Amino acid sequence: MITAVLFDLDRTLLDHDDAARRAIVGTFPEVDPVWLAARWAELTEEAVDRYLAGELSFAEQRRLRIVTLAGDLGLGAWDDARADAWLTGFVARYQAAWRPFPDAAPALDALAAHGLRLGVITNGDAAQQRLKVERLGFADRLPVVVASSEAGAAKPDAGIFLAACAALGTEPHAAAYVGDRLIVDARGAAAAGLTGVWLDRSGDPAPDALDVARITTLDALPSLLWD
Length: 227
Hints:
The structure is a single chain. By secondary structure, the protein is α/β, with parallel strands linked by helices. It has helices spanning 16-27, 33-52, 58-72, 80-96, 104-113, 126-135, 148-151, 158-168, 182-191, 221-226; strands spanning 4-7, 117-122, 144-147, 175-179, 195-199, 213-215.
């Protein structure tokens, strides 16, 4: 019986891709927006992977993204001071564009009404991720936020899933975890003993021989857990 549900944050509850796209396109309006959004997403993934691996600090991975992009755009070599000045404006635009997916609040409310304990497991900087939860209006619904920067482990490492279960006061077998990445989120949770649920918003057909539960909208989560 599931008594607790934990969620990924970016691309699961928060529409991170839209917020990042709005922020970067608004910064360089003269650049092709399709290319720019795709390139920024690529640089972000590469930099964040290095941050999670311990190769870069949170500030360094941010700087790396804009320094690389500035080079791509022929804007010359940027030092840390110029990168940090640019990042101040970018982060403000990114934060202003934070929005929850429309299905997030109804799903959280339905689960809470059923008596389930709720929380977040996220790879990232704890301060920024908690700010996201607060700005989305979910702080009361999601009182437990376990971030990799504090947990000493990042998904898919079992340690972060187990730390979150302990924080919620639940055993792994009684917890479900919902995230947008099949391997890192759903399979990582399942390997740690939780019920892994893959939130696949892509609209693509389900892959063959899928070994975890798959939903295409959070609206489907309550019935998945209760049926």
